[in-house]
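Quick one: structure tokens for this chain, please?
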Amino acid sequence: MRVFHYGEDVLTAGIALSIARGKCRGALSAKTRDKVRASQQTVARIVEQGEAVYGINTGFGPLCTTRISKEETQKLQTNILKSHSVGVGEPIVSEIAKLMLILKVHSLAKGYSGIGETTLDRIIWHIEQDIIPLVPCKGSVGASGDLAPLAHLFLPLIGLGRVQYNGRTRDAGELLKELAVKPLNPGPKEGLALINGTQFIAAHAIKVVEKMHSCLAQADIIGAMMIEGLQGSVKPFLDELHQLRPFKGCIHVASRMRALLSDSEIMEDHIDCDRVQDPYSLRCIPQVHGASRNAWLHLKELLETELNAVTDNPVIIDENLTISGGSFHGQPLAMALDYACLAAAEVGNISDRRIYLSLEGNSEGVPKLLMEDTGINSGYMILQYTAAALVSENKGLCFPSSADSIPTSLGQEDHVSMGSISGRKALTVLENVEKVLAIELLTAAQAFEFRKPLKSGVILDEVHQQVRSRVTFAEHDRVFADDIEKGIELIRSGVILEKASQMAQSRSIELKTSFENEFETY
């Protein structure tokens, strides 16, 4: 198993997910341990000297001028974990909480936070033993760090809070006792170091990057299948056109569309037809999907900066320089997540338009509502209602959370990012997009069927077979909710991407996948 060195190696979204999923192990090197110990010793000397340094021997937020005695500095750090554990709502999924632990270790291991080596080892123990704290989804305003979620994340270190272990929710104190593991007593600065940071926002952004990448890649494939089913044209995807407006995302998608539609008998069959133009939802796939690709890339690049940053406060440079700044502010990711949220919603929006288009019966050979015996049968009509509902919900979720700010901490924290909300909303939008794409996949496969005995290219034929191995051609009405669930599972499993890639490689078709060092796991 590959080893990632916390605090030294460059962390990416893919590597973080690999650690969370047990495919890669995170560890502290001797060099990193030396840096961590040196930083902790610097904090100890500051406590001994008695000079006021925020968060070490002062209160927090509006209490920053309140001096704390040397004897009470440890109690201060325990109290901050308790007092800031004010989250509400359902717990976030365990994988996101585990990602938070991974991101926090990497940031603290850089040696600017005064954290103790023992504390880092305990967090790594939680990761490796898969003992994952329960973290409520709501309560962070995304500045001064993700205070509430991070406080809940680290309550188990002091024997409080709840955890997920072996599929069960357990009281952290009881589980530690059962495993003969003693709770920790945080030293000076440790409690503050644990709760200051953007790890809640960043962990959600990792999942957004992964899920959005999957949706974008599958949207191209499903859109190409719909073009085949409705006998659209390949001309809008020619490279000669896109080099005249060379946006990276658009060029990338156009290249994929050409590969997906290559060697298609369906395309050849209507090459001389008298249709002048296709509707935008077919013709403008490179422009719309490509614009969303550009937004994805923007988020990915900013996220990788954040994953390797120190977002603590104060930052311990050395004994003579301790900086109380604002590196915990979530604005850099909050705005990018709002942008990605809008970009993801647009993938669902244009997908819904293609679904609607497939039902009109305007394409020769494809019946209205994608079924020949309509009247007694409603065909695929109502599936588009569901897509419309999901797309409408997404539009409501696209208001940028980062455009709002409510002062907190008695005005000390007078501008906040709301980036935690940006992350949660973006994931909700993407989950809806997966469902819309599943519906388009079903309708595209149905339209595709009416082109027989003509064949598409080998990639789309293979994708169609994957759909048909789970969902049969519909001649009459049935409970389509069952079909939709199977379609959603196809989308979420990544089977379509896997089979398309395998088929492209076996036939030496360049199904372009590299897009600015595209998302990969470690």
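The beta strands are 2-5, 24-27, 88-91, 132-133, 136-138, 162-165, 168-171, 315-318, 321-323.
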